[in-house]
Structures are given as structure tokens and as C-alpha cells.
């Protein structure tokens, strides 16, 4: 098990630890189902943004809130081990935000998100964006009750990352390759990275994006609009 959060079996846990992990995940799943019902009753749509520290989650979030703020009602849940720095960046866009500080915890769980939803109490039809704690491992194991998972990978991290962190990429509904304006300066083979990703998860959409150059933003907004439409229609209470 992961020492800090007990969220992943590393192969040396033994029977009792496996049972603890199973109980923990079952409890999380119950909270996730409750979050999904809560959102469905309000025609809400929740996205879980996951990536390594510094991959560009908050930058994309802020740009999205600025560009689509007049079109959709947003609410944001920020997950970080410490500080309200990202929450302050979101607040500057005039969007309601709830910061969850996980301390030693390396992921958000559905119970924390449930409290955040209650505290935010977003209007019906809102898009709730969750920025998970920067980590390509543990957040993959925790359903938050989201309708879709978006995994970001910046081109400065290396094109082999999908192979090294397969759970994260297998569970993604969308993969965004961020900071593509930096491609001329780094050894990152976009085709190879997409190939690795699609071998793990055939057919997953991949968007190349830069908040600096604007590349890919239109595709991201198009995906977001379509998902919101389809998933809101498909929710089961
Ligand atoms: N060149 C370039 N830099 C970017 C881009 N997006 C983000 N950055 C920079 O990358 C750094 C990290 O960005 P954040 O948005 O804070 O990343 P994050 O994933 O939210 O980081 P944590 O919340 O700490 O995990 C900042 O210095 C950003 O300015 C991009 O498209 N191009
Ligand atoms: Mg951030």
C-alpha cells in the first residue's frame, strides 16, 4: 500500500492490508455514487482533471473560465496538499471555488468532494471542475462521482509517461498534451506518445494544447460542450 494514503497495493501488503484497501475503496465508491446522484438531481456535470504537479491544470482551468464563463456556470474544487494559491487564481476569474487541502494525502477522495459540493452549492446545470492533487498515480484509483476524467500530460515530462503510469491513461476519457508551444525545445515525440496512449486505451481522444499559443483550445471547448450535452442527457438518478 501507498504509505501516505493506503491507496495502492504495491505488492507487499498481505491479506489484512488488501482488505483495508478494499474497504476503503468500497467506502469511496459509495460516496462517489452519492455525489453522482447529487449532481444528477441538479443537472450538474463534473470533470476530474488529473496530471503531474505543474502539468498546466490550473492554467487551462483559468483560461477556460475566462473564455467560457459567459456560456456556462462554473464551480471549481481545488485539491492541493497545501496553500490556497490555485483557489486564488480561480477566484480572480469570479468563479466560486472550494479549496481542499489534503495535507499528506496525495489524491482527492469522494467524501472530500461531497463536502466541497455541499459547500459550493452550485446552481442547477453547473459545470463543476475538480483539479485533483498533482500526481499521476493515486488519483486514478479514486472515483469522485465525476462524469468524465481528463488527464493532462505536458510535453516537458517525456513521451513515455503513458507506459509508466498506465492506470491513469487507461481511465481517461480525454488526454490533453499540454505546453505544445515548448515542443521545439524538448525531445517529445507526439506520435509516439499518442501511440503509447492508444495501445493502453484504444480510441481515446487526444488533444494537443497550449494556453500560450492557443493551439487546441477550440478542440477542448468543443469536447467539453459535447460531453456536457451527452452526459447530462444520460445521467441516471
Ligand atoms: N510554455 C507554457 N507554459 C505553461 C503552459 N501551461 C502552463 N504553463 C506553465 O506551467 C507552470 C505550471 O502551471 P500550472 O497551471 O500551475 O500547473 P498545475 O498542473 O496546476 O500545477 P499544480 O497545481 O501545482 O500541480 C506555470 O509556470 C505555467 O505558466 C503552456 O501551455 N505553455
Ligand atoms: Mg494547479
Task: Give the gist of this structure.
The chain has helices at residues 14-41, 57-68, 85-91, 110-120, 161-164, 166-170, 190-200, 217-234; strands spanning 45-50, 74-80, 97-101, 127-131, 148-154, 174-178, 206-208.
How would you describe this structure in keywords?
237 residues; alpha/beta; Rossmann fold; seven-stranded parallel beta sheet; 8 helices; 41% helix; binds guanosine-5'-triphosphate; binds magnesium ion
Query: How are the strands of the largest sheet arranged?
Result: 3-2-4-1-5-6-7
Tally of distinct domains: 1
The profile of the biggest β sheet is: 7 strands, parallel
List the ligand species: guanosine-5'-triphosphate, magnesium ion
Average predicted local confidence, pLDDT: 92
What is the CATH T-level topology? Rossmann fold
Unreliable spans: none
Number of helices: 8
Number of strands: 7
Determine the N-to-C terminus distance: 34 Å
Percent strand: 15-25%
CATH superfamily: P-loop containing nucleotide triphosphate hydrolases
CATH architecture: 3-Layer(aba) Sandwich
The radius of gyration is 17 Å
Sum up the overall morphology in one term. Answer: globular
Reading the helices and strands in chain order gives HEHEHEHEEHHEHEH
Amino acid at each position: 500500500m501507498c504509505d501516505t494514503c493506503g491507496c495502492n497495493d504495491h505488492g507487499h501488503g498481505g491479506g489484512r492490508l488488501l482488505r483495508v484497501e478494499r474497504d476503503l475503496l468500497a467506502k469511496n465508491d459509495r460516496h462517489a455514487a452519492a455525489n453522482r446522484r447529487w449532481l444528477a438531481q441538479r443537472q450538474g456535470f463534473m470533470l476530474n482533471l488529473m496530471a503531474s504537479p505543474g502539468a498546466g491544470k490550473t492554467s487551462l482551468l483559468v483560461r477556460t473560465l475566462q473564455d467560457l464563463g459567459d456560456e456556462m456556470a462554473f464551480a471549481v474544487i481545488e485539491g492541493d496538499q497545501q496553500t490556497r494559491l490555485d483557489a486564488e487564481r480561480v477566484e480572480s476569474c469570479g468563479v466560486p471555488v472550494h479549496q481542499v487541502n489534503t495535507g499528506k494525502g496525495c489524491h482527492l477522495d469522494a467524501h472530500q468532494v461531497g463536502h466541497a459540493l455541499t459547500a459550493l452549492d452550485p446552481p442547477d446545470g453547473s459545470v463543476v471542475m475538480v483539479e485533483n492533487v498533482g500526481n499521476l498515480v493515486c488519483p486514478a484509483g479514486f472515483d469522485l462521482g465525476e462524469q468524465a476524467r481528463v488527464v493532462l500530460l505536458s510535453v516537458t515530462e517525456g513521451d513515455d509517461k503513458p507506459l509508466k503510469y498506465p492506470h491513469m491513461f487507461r481511465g481517461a476519457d480525454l488526454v490533453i498534451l499540454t505546453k505544445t508551444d515548448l515542443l521545439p525545445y524538448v525531445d517529445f515525440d507526439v506520435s509516439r506518445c499518442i501511440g503509447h496512449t492508444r495501445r493502453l486505451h484504444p480510441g481515446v481522444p487526444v488533444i494537443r494544447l497550449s494556453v500560450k499559443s492557443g493551439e487546441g483550445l477550440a478542440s477542448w471547448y468543443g469536447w467539453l460542450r459535447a460531453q456536457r450535452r451527452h452526459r447530462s442527457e444520460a445521467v441516471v438518478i
